[in-house]
Design goal:
By secondary structure, this protein is α+β, with helices and mostly antiparallel strands. The chain has helices spanning 2-9, 49-61; strands at residues 34-39, 42-47.
Length: 63
């Protein structure tokens, strides 16, 4: 699952993400997912909380 969160944070296409297949009862769409990395000794945080909520909403609108 860790790899799926990494892929999701690194802007993998949403339609292939297993993260969006996690039931809302387990992973609340309001959850903040952040990836902390360091590039050239400079810290960088990629946060996708709002993106996760939009993605969940899009997936559920097709049902």
């Amino acid at each position: 699952m860790s790899m799926e969160f990494l892929n999701f944070c690194l802007l993998r296409r949403e339609d292939g993400s297993r993260v969006l297949k996690i039931p809302k009862t387990i992973l609340d769409p309001d959850t903040q997912i952040c990836l902390d990395i360091e590039i050239n000794s400079k810290p960088l945080t990629i946060g996708l909380g709002e993106q996760l909520k939009k993605s969940f909403d899009q997936v559920n609108s097709f049902k």
